[in-house]
Hints:
By secondary structure, this protein is mainly α. The protein is built from two helices and no strands.
Amino acid sequence: MINRFDETKAFDYENGFYLTSRVSRMGNILAHYELYKKIIDRPGAIVECGVFRGGGTCPICDVS
Length: 64
């Protein structure tokens, strides 16, 4: 399945995600971003335990 990802359509995939997601999902993304801004300058590593499919901090992995 991952081999069928067309990188030239990444913008369309991202917009599709935002347009079809529940409002609570968007709230979670914003909450994670706010937490990320608070810890960005702290030394060390982030450890996340007990998340389903890495959905907790996975979206901000590309930000750092």
